[in-house]
Amino acid sequence: MNIVILLGAPGSGKGTVAGRLASENANLKHVSSGDLLRGAVAKGTPAGVEAKGYMESGNLVPDALIAQMIKDVVAETTGDVTMLLDGFPRNLAQAKILEEMGAPIRSAVLIDVPDEIIQDRISGRRTCPKCKAGYHVRNLPPKVEGICDVCGEKLTIRKDDNPETVKDRLVVYHRETEPLIEFYKAKNLLKVVDGTAALDLVAKAFSGNM
Ligand code: ADP
Ligand code: ZN
């Protein structure tokens, strides 16, 4: 098992890219910290109960809480698998926790999208609550409006995808997560992909770079 970290702002499309690549390649496993957390919130586990308020306000949940979830997934992932780690680490403390887990990190790929584009991207974002597929009303519409292509479920808008919370999430991204770019650059692990291109091109550039 080895790890490819996806770096990028909220709305950079990193989750969609990872999801698409994993659906096309059995050796790739998409692990989204946000999906793990939303799953825990939906189930009402103790971790989910603790995480809920942080997530709704656009803040990061405590490091130990998300780190334990990632540790569990890393422990159960064996064999010839590349884990596409989406949303973790989100700050330097988490990056250090990940190193301590000991799983080899192959690269950290930044999907680069300027802030100006983010609000628009997120306002059109729709997600399938069942299979987690991601859509965009203009850039990546489902075949039938409001319905998931993959599983037929009704698409939803994430609670934290409103303009105010997105603003806060961007502030958190620049303050907490952006320093990881330099962190992985210094380790010679950083790759950068232009995230403003069409999804197919971004996915292609990503898989060629990871
Ligand atoms: P985005 O689309 O903004 O990248 P995610 O789905 O990755 O969002 O995360 C949604 C929310 O879950 C975050 O705003 C944060 O509250 C929480 N979260 C996800 N990953 C982490 C993490 N590694 N550390 C702390 N909080 C996290
Ligand atoms: Zn679905």
User: What is the subunit arrangement here?
Assistant: single chain
Q: Using the alpha-carbon principal axes, give the shape.
A: globular
Cα Rg: 16 Å
Number of strands: 7
Describe the protein's architecture and organization.
The chain is built from nine helices and seven strands; from the N terminus they run βαβαααβαβαββααβα. By secondary structure, the chain is α/β, with parallel strands linked by helices. Helix 6 crosses helix 7. The chain has helices at 14-24, 33-43, 46-56, 63-76, 92-101, 115-123, 163-177, 179-186, 199-209, and strands at 2-7, 28-32, 82-86, 105-112, 125-127, 134-136, 190-194. 48% of the residues lie in helices and 17% in strands. The strands form two sheets. It has a five-stranded parallel β-sheet with strand order 2-3-1-4-7, with helices on both faces. A two-stranded antiparallel ribbon has the order 5-6. The structure holds adenosine-5'-diphosphate and zinc ion. The site of zinc ion has 8 residues, from loops.
Features:
48% helix; two-stranded antiparallel sheet; binds zinc ion; 210 residues; 17% strand; alpha/beta; binds adenosine-5'-diphosphate; 5-stranded parallel beta sheet
Layout of secondary structure:
Elements: E1 2-7, H1 14-24, E2 28-32, H2 33-43, H3 46-56, H4 63-76, E3 82-86, H5 92-101, E4 105-112, H6 115-123, E5 125-127, E6 134-136, H7 163-177, H8 179-186, E7 190-194, H9 199-209
Parallel strand pairs: 1-3, 1-4, 2-3, 4-7
Antiparallel strand pairs: 5-6
The structure holds adenosine-5'-diphosphate and zinc ion.
Residues 128, 130-131, 133, 148, 150-151, 153 line the site of zinc ion (ZN).
